[in-house]
UniProtKB/TrEMBL annotation:
Membrane-topology descriptor: Multi-pass membrane protein
Similarity remark: Belongs to the major facilitator superfamily. Nitrate/nitrite porter (TC 2.A.1.8) family.
Subcellular location: Membrane
Organism: Ohtaekwangia kribbensis
Keyword Transmembrane helix: yes
Name of the protein described by the UniProt record: MFS transporter
Alphabetically ordered keywords of this record: Membrane, Nitrate assimilation, Transmembrane, Transmembrane helix
Entry-linked InterPro entries: MFS, MFS_dom, MFS_trans_sf, NO3_transporter
Length: 445
């Protein structure tokens, strides 16, 4: 193909393709998102050591959990807007460079207050999700965009599980060369920080904004060029006025919001409730995140298949069913006091939680074709709102982690019912138009 001709959006996912703009962005984006989890949650599996070193109370640990996800709400909205303005390539590069700084410097903390501030700053890295989804959305055609979004997000989210496994080993390596645990956790965080900084250069030099090229070049030819066609002035207000967006907001809070909450507390949970060592607890907690290697993509695939057959109604019903089983699974997990059963039930609800993540974003591109970016940003922020609300349950010294998880399970179940009610509604005309429009695009490609 002549490289001077504009490239079309990819209509299939070829995992062995590392040359085309779409698949190159696919691979670099999920790897970058994967590494972002090392920065965002790298400190989580080390919290038993940090808690002892800084003398943190349960309430303070809860506040730290909230801080790690609260600022992400605003960061996602800002970077979602910036993607349209300067493109996902520059956005990700800025985020990686800026986000690496507090990750590398959190080891300077010597009090609860300073640690809380660094943890708050690190939370900005959570905006990586919006950039990831944005970049994938502009690279792939409607027939596979749900699967592509779910796969890159799922493989990236897998970093949350690998982080819980690897960071205790990094700490152990520093202890092995003579540092105390109180010093080792500080040096350990330099590792993901340096990784993020290096990835900033990789993203800048190895990706492009759209299949056609970078926004800066394309706007020299067309000053009004937008990566996402159809986004227009007032689209954000239109998205805000759509009740379906707010149900998806709640749904994503009930799945991704709970996922990052579990990433934050899983190691502490297994250390405190099953008297495990840091490495053993980290490995078990890490299996929760490792489910992303297939589960989130599976949710996107089910969503796409249901969408082709039943339109938006099918996509939302699939989401509601996954959320229902997630909520029931969390309640069962919270009652387990035998380690093997706790692990089994954790993996069970993890499966449905991560499929819910993928199913949610198989719906998002089809809610409002003129406000895809706005819908994506609002729903993405919902994930972190859910995490913040869940975090408050872990701040009380009078409520155990088990009781908090059971309450979360009830809340997720309620949200699943709302999703199923939405799916049962008859009128979803706009999505049917969008899904129909996908067919001519495929024929042209």
């Amino acid at each position: 193909m002549d490289q001077n001709l504009p490239a079309a959006k990819a209509t299939k996912i070829n995992l062995l393709d590392f040359k085309s703009p779409s698949m190159r962005a696919f691979h670099i984006t999920w790897i970058t998102f994967f590494l972002c989890f090392f920065g965002w949650f790298g400190i989580a599996p080390l919290m038993p050591v940090v808690r002892k070193d800084l003398g943190l109370t349960q309430a303070q640990v809860g506040n730290i959990i909230i801080a790690s996800v609260s600022i992400t709400i605003f960061a996602r909205l800002v970077f979602g807007w910036l993607c349209d303005k300067i493109g996902p390539r520059i956005c990700y590069t800025i985020l990686l460079f800026v986000g690496s700084v507090p990750v590398m410097l959190i080891g300077l903390s010597n009090s609860y207050e300073s640690f809380l501030l660094f943890r708050l700053a690190i939370g900005v890295i959570g905006a990586s999700f919006v950039i990831t989804q944005y970049h994938t959305s502009v690279m792939f055609a409607p027939n596979v965009v749900g699967t592509a979004n779910a796969t890159v997000a799922g493989w990236g989210n897998m970093g949350g599980g690998v982080t819980l496994m690897v960071m205790p080993l990094v700490l152990a390596a520093f202890v092995g060369v003579g540092y105390t645990s109180e010093i080792a956790w500080r040096y350990s965080m330099m590792v993901p920080g340096i990784g993020l900084f290096i990835m900033g250069f990789v993203y800048y030099f190895c990706t492009q904004d759209t299949p056609e090229g970078n926004l800066s070049d394309l706007r020299k030819k067309d000053a009004h060029f937008k990566a996402k066609k159809g986004d227009e002035k007032g689209s954000f207000l239109k998205a805000l006025s759509d009740y379906r967006v707010w149900i998806l907001f709640l749904a994503y809070g009930a799945c991704f919001g709970i996922e990052i909450t579990i990433d934050n507390i899983a190691t502490l949970y297994f250390v405190d409730n099953f008297n495990l060592g840091l490495r053993e607890a980290g490995i078990i907690a890490g299996t929760f995140g490792m489910m992303n290697i297939f589960a989130r993509a599976l949710g996107g695939i089910f969503g796409d298949k249901a969408g082709k057959k039943f339109g938006l109604k099918g996509r939302i019903i699939v989401l509601g069913i996954f959320l229902l089983f997630e909520g029931i699974g969390i309640m069962i997990f919270s009652t387990m006091d035998v380690l093997p059963w706790a692990i089994a039930t954790m993996l069970l609800f993890a499966l449905f939680l991560k499929m819910s993540n993928g199913a949610t974003y198989s719906v998002v591109p089809f809610i409002n074709k003129k406000a895809i970016g706005a819908v994506s940003g609002i729903v993405g922020a919902g994930g972190n709102v859910g995490a913040v609300l869940a975090g408050f349950l872990f701040t009380s010294n009078d409520v155990s982690y088990r009781d908090s998880l059971f309450t979360i399970g009830i809340a997720v179940t309620v949200v699943s019912v709302l999703s199923l009610v939405l799916g049962a509604m008859k009128k979803h005309e706009e999505v049917n138009q969008v899904e129909t429009l996908a067919e001519p695009e495929l024929k042209a490609a």
